[in-house]
Design brief:
The protein has 763 residues and is an alpha+beta fold. It is built from 17 helices and 35 strands. The strands form 11 sheets. Strands 1, 2, 3, 4, 9, 13, 16 and 17 form an 8-stranded mixed sheet that branches. It has an 8-stranded antiparallel sheet with strand order 5-6-7-8-18-12-11-10. A 3-stranded mixed sheet has the order 21-20-25, covered by helices on one side. The longest helix has 26 residues, at 703-728. The radius of gyration is 27 Å and the shape is globular. The chain starts with a helix and ends with a helix. The model has no long low-confidence stretch (mean pLDDT 96). Bound molecules: N-9'-methoxynonyl-1-deoxynojirimycin (6A9). Residues 361, 365-366, 370, 372-373, 420-421, 424, 500, 502, 750 line the site of N-9'-methoxynonyl-1-deoxynojirimycin.
């Protein structure tokens, strides 16, 4: 019974929110308190869509179909859409996106207009044209609105088939009218010939929208412009649904079929703004509003980052604007429960119901929140809009559970869950992630209102204490990432997902003896920021100051992590330097076919306690987080490894693992190509620039050398990310160290967008 009780109480702490007052005060994010953040493009996983910051919000969106091609809706990698992204987006009221899809160029623009008590109005303009000459294919645009468990929608039909408008009402949003204006030609002149179809259906969940629409398409509609041949096309049939799935909401969809070029406008008018509205925001009024917002965006961008004044070319400025805009346009609002797994319990448990307002690493691959990514995002967002950054940070801290843990990856709600393979959904309760939110807070702190910081403090304290308690190392002042891969024989080197550096080589044989250098440096940074915060608030700062002092003591750091035999800082653990993957053929069972060969790890030299020979990002951490004194005798060695082409230097930035390191560019399993084993990653390069910039300014014997490296590294990194953007239209997850080519997910305007700050030299 005692064991049962213990299990129960542990589970209950796992799913219980932390008792401290919320960092986001109730009501502070609603339409009355924050009208400008109420509506937004908070659906990063669709090419174009908007919703409100409400749980179970009404959603709006766009799908399109070039007849003969595929239905487009959610952003997917390698679906044939060759380029898309926000060119301008102010994170609040306005955005311009361009999408290139097999000859079709779509421009999606939105503008919001304040008024009333429910977040005001907005208008969309979608401009469609073909890139080349030749006959335009038939194009269908599908504009939809859907509910998810609350709210009602009523269609307003014209001539029985054209959905002219939707009258709706929902919690927080109140009454609203969505109007689909008739399409016009490119210059806005006269109505353009189009066919109309309309669909009203029950929605079993927002993640089923694409299938729902696909399922209702029939090739029985006819496009017959006067005096021209008739063409059949796929149109939605007016009633539909997914057989056997229980509806939880409503969908109303307006399909417009036409030959590009064309301009389509949609307006959303809030019932409560009726008294203050001066005319509909469409046509010339919309053009004027878009132009005004674009000019204001340009001005604010220049005032914030001064790239023009610094001599950046127009293409470079456009690139930087797009990088920032894609991060702002990638901000999402999520609602749901994580699926949690504790060490001591077999079955997963759903976490507390929560909401999260956050940027995302990548709209197509990772349209959800990631803890340590977000700290990097906030460095950029905090420069553009400190209030927005503070709000996001507060949302993250409200995810804290009673133990003080924040799950690393936030998969909240059906739409988020639908994008993740089941084996990746579970969040393990011993798994940490670097506390980069504190890095962001360090920069937000000087201008943040005191009441805000007071709300944050108890939560930050609990979070940091959780890290300190659960990730403690084998000796005082050492730390160890928990949750490394359990089955070491399957991997060349068992991964450490919690560190954020996934497959970066660590001790070959995970054990409780390990001490991880990067984590120790993160803890030093965390203690430093908490000390400053506590002091600022008149709270007791001494424990944090003492901890920060101990963790940045250069002699102690040396004793615990300097590896004389390697000439660098390193992790320590049970490690074999001679491991390799080899094909094994398991012995067949009698009378069965021979089993498939398996790639397994051979250990050719027994592991022993020692420093881990892997020169790379982890080795640089004392420098990256500026724990080394400016006169440290270790600085020359680190600067030397950074600048050495045999080790970390490339013409495109610093590679993650030295070229002469044993696991450089090695696969971890048959299916796992190298990830943090050579590629150039922008987040760590940003930390390197920031640190070099710092060392170049501090008096010390290595000042000149740091300044020189700073200039060269900044040039290399910025030039390559820009070059790759020009060539492909995307920011990428990481960059190949041999030729700078973008790798992995794209678009990836998460931390790769930090190039904007490097261009601005704003650290
Ligand atoms: C896998 C696959 C359709 C890996 O940017 C987010 C994270 C970083 O925090 C981490 O440091 N990325 C980096 O090493 C991406 C992680 C993706 C995990 C989800 C599911 C589904 O793909």
């Amino acid at each position: 019974a005692a064991a049962e009780w213990k299990r129960w109480s542990e589970t209950s702490r796992l799913v219980t929110p932390h008792p401290a007052p919320p960092a986001v005060p109730p009501g502070s994010t609603g339409p009355l308190a924050s009208p400008t953040y109420f509506w937004g493009t908070y659906r990063p996983h669709v090419y174009f869509g908007m919703k409100t910051r409400s749980p179970r919000a009404v959603v709006t969106g766009l799908m399109w179909l070039q007849h003969g091609g595929n239905l487009r809706h959610t952003s997917e990698q390698n679906d044939g859409v060759s380029r898309y992204g926000w060119l301008m987006h102010d994170g609040e009221n306005f955005g311009v996106q361009e999408i290139r899809d097999e000859g079709l160029v779509l421009r999606t623009e939105f503008v919001k207009q304040p008024g009333g008590d429910h977040g005001g109005d907005w208008s969309w303009r979608v401009t469609a044209k073909m890139e080349g000459k030749g006959p335009a294919p038939l194009l269908s645009l599908f504009f939809y609105v859907a509910t998810d468990g609350q709210g009602t929608l009523r269609p307003v039909l014209e001539n029985g088939t054209r959905l002219a408008a939707v009258a709706g009402t929902a919690e927080e949003l109140g009454d609203f009218t969505l109007t689909f204006l008739p399409p016009t030609g490119e210059g806005g002149e006269g109505t353009k010939y189009a066919s109309y179809n309309f669909l009203a259906a029950g929605v079993p969940g927002l993640h089923r929208l694409t299938d729902l629409v696909r399922h209702s398409l029939r090739e029985s509609s006819v496009f017959s412009p006067p005096g021209r041949p008739r063409r059949r096309f796929f149109g939605v049939s007016s009633t539909g649904g997914l057989p056997g799935e229980v509806p939880r909401g409503q969908l109303l969809l307006h399909q417009v079929t036409l030959e590009p070029p064309a301009v389509l406008e949609v307006t959303l008018e809030s019932g409560s703004a009726a008294g203050t509205r001066r005319g509909r925001l469409a046509g010339p009024a919309l053009s004027a509003a878009l132009a005004r917002h674009a000019a204001a965006f340009e001005q604010r961008f220049e005032d914030t980052f001064r790239l023009g004044a610094r001599g950046a070319s127009l293409p470079q400025r456009r690139f930087a604007q797009a990088a920032l805009s894609e991060m702002l346009g990638g901000i999402g609002f999520f609602h749901g429960r994580s699926l949690l797994r504790s060490e001591r319990r077999e079955e997963p448990v759903p976490g507390a119901e929560s909401v999260l307002f956050t940027a995302v690493p990548s709209r197509c691959c990772f349209p959800r929140g990631f803890l340590w990514d977000e700290g990097f995002h906030l460095l950029l967002l905090g420069r553009w809009d400190p209030a927005l950054a503070r709000d996001i940070l507060a949302h993250w801290l409200d995810l804290l559970n009673a133990d003080g843990w924040i799950p690393r990856e936030q998969i909240l709600g059906d739409e988020a869950r639908a994008r993740v393979p089941p084996e990746f959904v579970l969040q393990h309760s011993e798994t940490a992630n670097p506390p980069t939110l504190l890095l962001a807070l360090e920069r937000l702190l000087p201008d943040a209102p005191l009441p805000y910081l007071r709300r944050l403090f108890p939560r930050l304290r609990a979070w940091f204490e959780w890290l300190n308690r659960t990730q403690a190392g084998p000796e005082p002042f050492t730390f160890r990432w928990r949750g490394r891969d359990a089955d070491p024989e399957r991997f060349l080197n068992p991964k450490t997902l919690s560190s954020g550096l996934d497959d970066y080589p660590r001790a070959s044989h995970p054990s409780a003896q390990e001490r991880h250098l990067d984590l120790r440096c993160w803890m030093a940074l965390g203690a430093r920021v908490l000390a400053v915060l506590a002091e600022h608030l008149g709270e007791s700062a001494a424990p944090y100051r003492d901890m920060a002092a101990a963790l940045s003591d250069n002699d102690l750091l040396d004793r615990l992590h300097w590896a004389p035999e390697l000439g660098t800082f390193a992790d320590f653990g049970n490690h074999s330097a001679a491991v390799a993957l080899r094909w094994h053929r398991p012995s067949p069972a009698p009378g069965r076919p021979p089993p498939a060969p398996q790639l397994r790890r051979d250990v050719r030299e027994a592991p022993r306690p020692r420093f881990v020979g892997a020169l790379g990002y982890v080795s640089l951490f004392p420098l990256l987080l500026q724990l080394l004194r400016a006169d440290s005798p270790r600085l020359p060695a680190l600067l030397g490894s950074m600048r050495s082409e045999k080790q970390l230097w490339t013409p495109f930035g610093l590679r993650s693992l030295a070229r002469d390191s044993p696991l450089y560019l090695r696969r971890n399993t048959e299916h796992d190509p190298p990830y943090w084993r050579g590629s150039v990653w922008v987040n760590i390069n940003f930390l390197a620039l920031r640190a070099l910039h710092g060392y170049a300014r501090a008096a010390g014997p290595h000042r000149e050398r740091a300044a020189e490296l700073y200039r060269e590294l900044r040039h290399n990194l910025v030039a390559n990310v820009f070059r790759q953007y020009e060539a492909t239209g995307f920011l990428w997850e990481h960059y190949r160290d041999s030729d700078g080519t973008g790798q992995g997910c794209h678009p990836f305007a998460g931390w790769s967008a930090l190039v904007v700050l490097a261009m601005a030299e704003d650290y």
